[in-house]
Amino acid sequence: MKHKIYILDDHPVVIEGLKKMLEGLDDLQVVGTAEDSVTALEQLSKLKPDAIILDITLKDRSGVDLIKKLKQSHPEILILVYSMHDENVYAERSLRAGAMGYVMKGEPASRVLMAIRQVVGGGFFFSAGLLGSIVSGGGPRSGARGEPGRMLSDRQLEVFEMVGRGFDSHEIAEKLALSAKTVDAHKANIRQKLGLDSARELLMEAVRWVEK
Fold first, then answer.
1. Over 70: is that where the pLDDT of 21 sits?
2. What is d(CA 15, CA 92) in angstroms, rounded to the nearest whole number?
3. By C-alpha distance, which of 104, 124, 209, 101 is closest to 162?
4. Cα–Cα distance list, 189 to 2, 165, 185 (Å)
5. Is 171 helix (H, G, I), strand (E, B) or coil?
6. Which of 80, 90, 91, 135 could crosslink 101 through cysteines, CB 3.0-4.6 Å?
7. How does DSSP assign 131-170, residue by residue?
8. Whole-angstrom Cα distance, residue 135 to residue 96?
9. Burial class (CB in 10 A: 0-12, 13-18, 19+), 127
10. Whole-angstrom Cα distance, residue 199 to residue 207?
């Protein structure tokens, strides 16, 4: 029996690469793809995949937020995150949101395939170092860029990244379905947590974060 796989990524070349990798396998079959979360959520009920492979950053929605949504609306679907972002920052958030695995886009195809098979089989796929850190209560490791990833909540990190991409409070509010006042409150809390003295420092730190 083939496990049915759904792919969600806002880069068509990534979707095509995954489809080609899974093409012709005896145990895995791609039953659908999407480049945005709205399309994916509309199709999942009809296609009923066993697992979804998704990126942690999408054009229309935070991947972590989408994982939480999927665990509410489709708890039976297993989730594997396939992302370019550092595991040390996002993997624990993904795990706690409901993902079963996290593999980076720089990994060889053999390891990506291993991650998919591990997840569809009901197992977890995270690096041994990360799982050991979570089990010991240490949380994700922090390096030069680790402080925002360690100190900010999921929503605060989402706002922080959007600031770094050049969105103002009104644009962020519209994309996240929040009020501009709430976004400004998040910014103030981010500044306090990161020890930043001004909006300019916040912007500079956020830009450095998204560019690395």
1. yes
2. 24
3. 209
4. 47, 19, 6
5. helix
6. 80
7. HHHHHTT--S---TTHHHHHHS-HHHHHHHHHHHTT--HH
8. 12
9. middle
10. 12
| Token pair recorded at residue 137 | 């209560």
Angle between helices 37-47 and 63-73 (to 10 degrees): 30
| Angle between helix 63-73 and 154-164 (nearest 10) | 140
Provide CATH 3.40.50.2300 ranges for the chain: 3-135
Per-residue pLDDT of 70-114, as tens digits, reads: 999 999 999 999 998 877 778 888 888 889 899 988 889 998 999
User: Is the domain defined by 146-211 classed in CATH 1.10.510.10?
Assistant: no
Give the pLDDT score at 208.
81
- Is CATH 3.40.50.2300 the classification given to domain 3-135? yes
Outline which parts of the chain fall under CATH 1.10.10.10.
Answer: 146-211
Q: pTM to 2 decimals?
A: 0.69
Which ranges in 23-108 belong to alpha helices (H)?
37-47, 63-73, 87-97
Q: Diameter of the chain by CA atoms?
A: 58
As given in the structure block, the two tokens for residue 185 are: 């409150």
Side chain identity at residue 208, one-letter code: R
- DSSP 8-class letter at 34: E
Here the tokens at position 64 are 């972590």
Query: Which residues are 79's β-sheet partners?
Result: 52
